[in-house]
Design goal:
This protein has helices spanning about 5-15, 20-35, 40, 50-65, 70-75, 95-110, 125-135, 145-160, 220-225, 230, 250-255; strands at about 75-80, 80-85, 115-120, 140-145, 165-170, 180-185, 235-240, 260-265, 275-280. It is α/β, with parallel strands linked by helices. The protein has 2 domains: about 5-65, no CATH class; about 80-280, Rossmann fold. The mean pLDDT is about 95. Bound molecules: glutamine. Glutamine (GLN) binds near residues 189, 190, 191 and 192.
Length: about 280
């Protein structure tokens, strides 16, 4: 094997940003040599065998064509868990950890085995991080997409959380029985407006469109979710939703119109208002 296949040479000759090249190469090292990421430095003069080299080239080329790193690796870290991801479900975003934190704070305060509803669960990111951090909680998670649910179920099995989670296929509250009520409702619905240029840029091009946009103003799903909260929350129960950086005022207004109380705005790590919560009155 020629020296031009050394790890150092592969990274410096690659047109991808160095951090991305390192992530992909670390994946190849782990898969073909069971080596940790630190081998990128400690074995930087090592040459890849032909099979590993071909895999590296294929991964780098997929990334050059724009495919999200999370889909190429088939996994993504979120909150305290690692999720399997694929083109059938939205890639979990760090800002969505805010919803998990809001829910967990409420669950801790309740100090009893809480019932949680996650609407539009996708890969199961929110539902599974809550279940994993709060073992007494039971979660009902819905999604319209059977592809997304298949991914969520796989994640539930590999994280050993099947006892705590029930999945239902359907749109928002539609699949729940009318009397079903929860201590906490969480949702990261599609809230990007149909004409938003971001939909045709970057990672979003590869994600399921129905997980990103309501094909309208961006507010349709948030409206349905907020309007249905009263029926499916216990008295004093909490709903928390993620929304776009410019939707905070409207979402607050929707919560007030729906008769919800104690409306609060929450900021992500970048300081943007990206979630709102409120309660059904006692
Ligand atoms: N946060 C995602 C983005 O802006 C959108 C996810 C969503 O619509 N729920 O890329």
């Amino acid at each position: 094997m020629s020296g031009s296949h050394s790890l150092r040479a592969l990274i410096s000759n690659c047109v991808l940003p160095a951090n991305e090249a390192r992530i992909l190469l670390a994946h190849v090292l782990e898969k073909h040599y069971q080596l940790p990421r630190s081998a990128l430095l400690s074995h930087d003069d090592m040459s890849l065998n032909e099979q590993a080299f071909q895999e590296w080239e294929s991964l780098a080329s997929r990334r050059l064509h724009g495919e999200p790193i999370a889909y190429i690796l088939g996994k993504k870290g979120f909150h305290n868990i690692e999720l399997q991801v694929g083109p059938g479900a939205l890639i979990p975003r760090p800002e969505t950890e805010l919803l998990v934190e809001i829910a967990l704070a409420e669950i801790t305060k309740l100090n009893k085995p809480a019932r949680v509803l996650d609407l539009g669960t996708g890969s199961g990111a929110i539902a599974l991080s809550i279940a994993s951090a709060a073992p007494l909680v039971s979660v009902v998670a819905t999604d319209q997409s059977t592809e997304a649910l298949a991914i969520a179920i796989k994640n539930t099995e590999s994280l050993n959380l099947t006892k705590q989670i029930q999945f239902l296929q359907g749109s928002w509250y539609e699949v729940l029985i009318q009397q079903s009520q929860f201590d906490v409702i969480v949702s990261n619905p599609p809230y990007i407006a149909n004409q938003d240029p971001h939909l045709s840029q970057g990672d979003l091009r590869f994600e399921p469109k129905s997980a990103l946009t309501d094909y309208a103003s961006g507010l349709n799903c948030l409206e349905i979710i907020i309007a249905g909260a009263d029926q499916h929350l216990k008295a004093g129960g909490l709903i928390a939703v993620e929304h776009g950086f410019d939707q905070s005022e409207t979402v607050v207004e929707l919560m007030k119109e729906a008769g919800l109380v104690d409306v609060q705005v929450h900021q992500d790590l970048a300081g943007h208002s990206r979630a709102a919560s409120s309660r059904k009155s006692l």
